[in-house]
Task: structure prediction
Amino acid sequence: MSLPLHLQEIQEHIKSIALAQGLDPFETIYEMVDYQKMNEVAAYEGFPTRYPHWRFGMEYERLKKSYTWGLHKIYELVINNDPCYAFLLEGNSLVEQKMVMAHVYGHSDFFKNNLWFANTNRRMMDEMANHGSRIRSYRARYGVQPVEEFLDICLSLDNLIDPHSSFIHRKGGGPQNMPTDADIPKMPSKAYMDSYVNPAEFMDAQKKRMEEDTVRSRKIPENPQKDVLLFMLEHAPMEPWQRNILSIIREEAFYFAPQAQTKILNEGWASYWHSKLMTEHILTDAEVIDFANCHAGTVAMNPGGINPYKLGIELFRDIEERWNTGRYGKEYEDCDNMVQKLNWDRQLGKGREKIFEVRRIYNDITFLDAFLTPEFCWEHKLFTFEYNKKNSQFEVFSRDFNDIKQKLIFQLTNFGQPFIYVEDANHANRNELVLWHRHEGVDLKKDYAVEVLANLQKLWTRPVHIRTMVDDKPVLWSHNGEEFSEDAWTPQE
Amino acid sequence: MKIRKDHARFREIVRGRIRKNLKRFISSDELIGRQGDEVVSIPVPRIEIPRFRFGSQESGGVGQGDGKEGEGVVDEGDGTGAAGSEPGEHALEVDIHLDELAEILGEELELPKIEPRGNEAVETTEHKYTSIRPTGPEGLRSFKRTYRRALLRQIISDTYNPDNPMIVPIREDRRYRACQETTRPRSNAVIIYMMDVSGSMGDEQKEIVRIESFWIDTWLRSQYQGIESRYIIHDATAREVDRDTFFATKESGGTMISSAYKMCVDMIQADYPAGDWNIYPFHFSDGDNWSADDTQTCVQMLSDEILPHVNVFCYGQVESPYGSGQFIKDLHEHFESNEDLLTSEIKNKEGIMDSIRDFLGKGK
Result:
């Protein structure tokens, strides 16, 4: 249902203010839905036309339940698409609707202008509908159950992609000459100095390295490949319809990846703008309290985790303040006088310009890396917590800036998920697949891993393995289609 | 709505998993204590889509708020990183309506539907405090709403001072919670549970009674709109107790089954006129009665005062290493052809499923 007339007028008003402030959103289409429809759309991750699958039903039930218990309410849903679609919840108060619309323009602007979204499909609404109708036709043709089972397999692998791959342009691919002795890489030198700069031992070592490279190039893949889904698409034996479903799952995973990469930034940006637009331009006096109540709910803190809305909005405000007053750069950082630092104001007025730059080129990781400061952590009472096995609870671990920053960035790196690569597709010369988990201190959850391996095996059809660590010891987990097994594994030179 | 199909498919998968695990659920106490008024939340193993991920316990996270190093963090959920507070992973819990669970039970055990007697649709009213109004007793004042009205009024009338943010509500600001009436059909069925808690009934025997009662309760609830439960425990004397006591009591002493039956008779006469009520007495014992005389009294009471008034009388005999198990034989002797009295011997937890079928399989 499209917006009622009085809200359309408000929407125009908010839009003109947003544009005047420098926001550059997609054309945004609002729809008013009741809570059931809202839960439905949310369960489909924003796309009401998505392919049929039970996990959407599971998510719907979860949303419905927590809505019924009053645990959450979805105020709004925005879809990265051109035009941008936004869903408003029927029955919200007028103040809430205004706030949500202002918030949505923030998101819409972010989708359009943030670099990490540059390669996303802006016609995803149509694309998702196409995916839906393709999978429906496979269901009709090959049976509901085989299609569902295959979808389950694909979905259990859909986090094994490389979201950066669309930004990387690799050279090569065409035929190359076999390297000869003349191609051995050496240090640049004048001819008469050559035997000193590149002595015989060095040249031998270089030659050996080159030969090793040649040996490695016989391996598939040549180097560990992070896009496991792509590797399966290119190398696993499948029916055409299965290959098609797998590529659909991969495409959708790529579409959603930037949203996970920019959660703090995106929500922070939208919250920054709804707050600014509402308090400076839109609110009437009588609405102030209700707005404050509603806004406070959005940015409420929670000791058990970080609220991305809160962290994002505060960081944006902090950046604006710092660049307005010039509290950045060598001169400020080297200053030892705390009083002077506290009253530092170079009257630069560059805050607005800076935050627009941030929204354009950063993602969550680079954002926190560049702009999280010790002062900020202290002011907002951030801490890290760890699980204490002794008394079975989470405990405050540290309030040290470096600890906090490291932990935050670790959680965000690779979406807080393990790094998994395809290492060898012809293990033991028996066509067995070996994945490699790049262990960074945290073990994999085993019961899940066992099931993923079982699914991967169905796809690969030959035995599959993953190289990982358990309690600091290298292990090889394997699944041969019948059963799971675990072996010690010795790293080889 | 399009989601209905996906949701229905999800429920179907869940039901399939429950059905597959039903025998395990029935012979363990996994579901006991998980039931609310209408739903029971069932841990369904392996339903989420598995992915490579970290064990959430180990990774910790970042939070905001007060607290010194080493102090516990209150996890209110909804955060990134943190998860539940218990070690070990728990399976996804899915709420199943008791009716639905009963339906699965009914289908698996092939239980026939019960034909209720008496007139149903007797209604009672209930009050729920769900709305807000400007008048009411002080006990029901909503602090938050009142505060917000007062804050708003003071800001509008310019008497709000941000440096000294004192809010003084006046009469007009006050808001009160108000109740709404809802009607609910009154129950016209009652289950009277009786349990022998004499010395020979051990913890394991009581556990069996507990689990079996849960399933009987689930099934009968699905057959009647609202149902009452009464609990009687007895050794040499009987007394009425609440549910928790019923399952928790440890007693010792002799056994006079007649004392419980006497109380059951009194209960029926006082509260449940048989014309309107469906009455289900269940008696669990290890079958070791004090004397043959007392057993004779029991038989007398059953045939004269209990069986004429109830839908069916069920006697479950739990095997115990100390009991003689004589009582069930006496009942068989006296009531062999009487279909209103059902007996069942329960050897161990695995026997619960068959016992339920014995009791409920007749459709009474």
In short: The first strand of chain A starts at residue 28 and ends at 33. The beta strands of chain A are 28-33, 76-79, 84-89, 382-388, 393-398, 419-427, 432-438, 464-470, 473-479, 484-488. Chain A has four domains: 5-114+262-296, 125-164+229-260, 299-412, 418-488.
